[in-house]
Amino acid sequence: MVVSLCKATIDDAAMLHEMQVNAFMPLLEKYQDDDTNPANESLEKVITRFKQPFTDYYLIKYLEDTIGGIRIVKMQNKSYRVSPIFILPEHQGKGIAQKVFGIIEEIYHDAQSWELDTIMQEKGLCHLYEKLGYKKTGNTKKINEKITIVFYEKS
Fold first, then answer.
1. How far apart are CA 79 and CA 12, in angstroms?
2. Residue 103's domain spans which residues?
Protein backbone atom coordinates (compact mmCIF):
# COMPACT_ATOMS: atom_id res chain seq x y z
CA MET A 1 0.00 0.00 0.00
CA VAL A 2 1.50 3.30 -1.09
CA VAL A 3 0.67 5.85 1.62
CA SER A 4 2.75 8.97 2.11
CA LEU A 5 2.60 12.31 3.86
CA CYS A 6 3.46 15.68 2.42
CA LYS A 7 3.88 18.71 4.68
CA ALA A 8 1.03 21.07 3.90
CA THR A 9 1.38 24.81 3.35
CA ILE A 10 -1.10 27.60 3.83
CA ASP A 11 -1.91 27.24 0.11
CA ASP A 12 -3.36 23.79 0.96
CA ALA A 13 -5.72 25.15 3.63
CA ALA A 14 -8.83 25.37 1.43
CA MET A 15 -8.34 21.84 0.08
CA LEU A 16 -7.72 20.46 3.59
CA HIS A 17 -10.81 22.26 4.87
CA GLU A 18 -12.95 20.80 2.08
CA MET A 19 -11.68 17.26 2.78
CA GLN A 20 -12.19 17.74 6.52
CA VAL A 21 -15.82 18.75 5.93
CA ASN A 22 -16.39 15.76 3.60
CA ALA A 23 -14.75 13.31 6.01
CA PHE A 24 -16.59 14.47 9.14
CA MET A 25 -20.02 15.22 7.62
CA PRO A 26 -21.39 11.65 8.11
CA LEU A 27 -20.48 11.87 11.82
CA LEU A 28 -22.05 15.34 12.10
CA GLU A 29 -25.27 14.03 10.57
CA LYS A 30 -25.24 10.99 12.89
CA TYR A 31 -24.46 12.76 16.17
CA GLN A 32 -25.57 16.39 15.58
CA ASP A 33 -22.53 17.65 17.52
CA ASP A 34 -22.77 21.04 15.83
CA ASP A 35 -20.40 22.89 18.18
CA THR A 36 -17.59 20.32 18.21
CA ASN A 37 -17.61 18.50 14.88
CA PRO A 38 -14.75 19.45 12.51
CA ALA A 39 -17.21 19.45 9.57
CA ASN A 40 -18.61 22.68 11.02
CA GLU A 41 -15.25 24.46 11.32
CA SER A 42 -14.73 27.45 9.10
CA LEU A 43 -11.92 27.80 6.60
CA GLU A 44 -10.77 30.76 8.70
CA LYS A 45 -10.30 28.49 11.72
CA VAL A 46 -8.18 26.08 9.66
CA ILE A 47 -6.08 29.00 8.38
CA THR A 48 -5.66 30.31 11.94
CA ARG A 49 -4.36 26.89 13.01
CA PHE A 50 -1.97 26.80 10.05
CA LYS A 51 -0.40 29.99 11.34
CA GLN A 52 0.20 28.57 14.82
CA PRO A 53 3.95 27.99 15.34
CA PHE A 54 3.18 24.75 17.23
CA THR A 55 1.01 23.21 14.47
CA ASP A 56 2.07 21.04 11.53
CA TYR A 57 -0.41 19.93 8.87
CA TYR A 58 0.25 17.06 6.47
CA LEU A 59 -1.58 15.94 3.36
CA ILE A 60 -2.31 12.21 3.36
CA LYS A 61 -1.57 10.74 -0.04
CA TYR A 62 -2.68 7.34 -1.30
CA LEU A 63 -0.91 6.44 -4.52
CA GLU A 64 -0.88 9.88 -6.20
CA ASP A 65 -4.15 11.19 -4.76
CA THR A 66 -4.55 13.47 -1.76
CA ILE A 67 -7.20 11.72 0.33
CA GLY A 68 -7.02 13.36 3.74
CA GLY A 69 -5.04 15.30 6.28
CA ILE A 70 -3.56 15.19 9.75
CA ARG A 71 -2.71 18.00 12.15
CA ILE A 72 0.02 17.55 14.72
CA VAL A 73 0.10 19.91 17.70
CA LYS A 74 3.51 20.22 19.35
CA MET A 75 3.10 20.56 23.10
CA GLN A 76 5.62 20.80 25.92
CA ASN A 77 8.12 18.10 26.90
CA LYS A 78 8.11 16.33 23.53
CA SER A 79 4.40 15.60 23.74
CA TYR A 80 2.29 15.69 20.60
CA ARG A 81 -1.43 15.73 19.90
CA VAL A 82 -3.23 14.45 16.80
CA SER A 83 -6.15 16.80 16.18
CA PRO A 84 -7.66 16.00 13.77
CA ILE A 85 -6.88 13.19 11.36
CA PHE A 86 -9.33 12.67 8.52
CA ILE A 87 -9.58 10.47 5.44
CA LEU A 88 -12.20 10.88 2.75
CA PRO A 89 -15.07 8.41 3.25
CA GLU A 90 -14.35 6.45 0.06
CA HIS A 91 -10.84 5.67 1.35
CA GLN A 92 -11.75 4.78 4.94
CA GLY A 93 -11.41 1.21 6.17
CA LYS A 94 -8.38 0.41 3.97
CA GLY A 95 -5.71 0.55 6.70
CA ILE A 96 -4.49 3.96 5.56
CA ALA A 97 -4.77 5.59 9.01
CA GLN A 98 -2.56 2.87 10.53
CA LYS A 99 0.12 3.64 7.94
CA VAL A 100 -0.24 7.39 8.60
CA PHE A 101 0.36 6.90 12.33
CA GLY A 102 3.47 4.85 11.57
CA ILE A 103 4.84 7.63 9.36
CA ILE A 104 3.97 10.35 11.90
CA GLU A 105 5.73 8.43 14.67
CA GLU A 106 8.84 8.23 12.48
CA ILE A 107 8.75 11.97 11.73
CA TYR A 108 8.30 12.82 15.42
CA HIS A 109 10.67 10.11 16.65
CA ASP A 110 11.59 12.24 19.69
CA ALA A 111 8.03 11.99 21.07
CA GLN A 112 7.72 11.07 24.72
CA SER A 113 3.94 10.90 24.49
CA TRP A 114 1.01 11.26 22.12
CA GLU A 115 -2.60 12.14 22.76
CA LEU A 116 -5.84 12.24 20.81
CA ASP A 117 -9.55 11.95 21.35
CA THR A 118 -12.38 10.33 19.46
CA ILE A 119 -16.05 9.43 19.65
CA MET A 120 -16.72 6.75 22.26
CA GLN A 121 -19.70 5.46 20.26
CA GLU A 122 -17.52 4.83 17.18
CA LYS A 123 -16.18 1.40 18.12
CA GLY A 124 -14.10 1.13 14.94
CA LEU A 125 -12.20 4.31 15.73
CA CYS A 126 -11.63 3.27 19.35
CA HIS A 127 -10.39 -0.13 18.15
CA LEU A 128 -8.00 1.50 15.67
CA TYR A 129 -6.37 3.72 18.29
CA GLU A 130 -6.17 0.91 20.84
CA LYS A 131 -4.57 -1.34 18.21
CA LEU A 132 -1.97 1.41 17.65
CA GLY A 133 -1.09 1.36 21.36
CA TYR A 134 -3.21 4.23 22.63
CA LYS A 135 -4.74 3.78 26.09
CA LYS A 136 -7.88 5.45 27.43
CA THR A 137 -7.00 8.12 29.99
CA GLY A 138 -10.26 7.66 31.86
CA ASN A 139 -11.43 11.14 30.85
CA THR A 140 -14.57 11.57 28.79
CA LYS A 141 -16.67 14.55 27.77
CA LYS A 142 -20.38 14.20 27.02
CA ILE A 143 -21.28 16.46 24.10
CA ASN A 144 -24.99 15.59 23.83
CA GLU A 145 -27.33 12.61 24.33
CA LYS A 146 -25.82 10.83 21.31
CA ILE A 147 -22.09 11.45 21.63
CA THR A 148 -19.34 11.27 24.22
CA ILE A 149 -15.69 12.09 23.51
CA VAL A 150 -13.09 9.69 24.95
CA PHE A 151 -9.47 10.72 25.49
CA TYR A 152 -6.43 8.57 24.68
CA GLU A 153 -2.69 8.73 25.25
CA LYS A 154 0.35 6.73 24.22
CA SER A 155 3.80 6.81 25.79
1. 25
2. 3-154
Q: What CATH number did the domain enclosing 38 receive?
A: 3.40.630.30
How many residues would you count in the chain? 155
pLDDT at 20: 98
pLDDT in tens, 82-126: 999 999 999 999 999 999 999 999 999 999 999 999 999 999 999
64: left (phi over 0), alpha (psi -120 to 50) or beta: alpha
Helix (H, G, I), strand (E, B) or coil at 85: strand
Q: Number of structural domains, the chain?
A: 1
Look up the pTM and report it: 0.96
Specify the long-range contacts of residues 101-105, CB closer than 8 Å, at least 24 apart: 101/132, 103/3, 103/4, 103/5, 104/5, 104/58, 104/70, 104/72
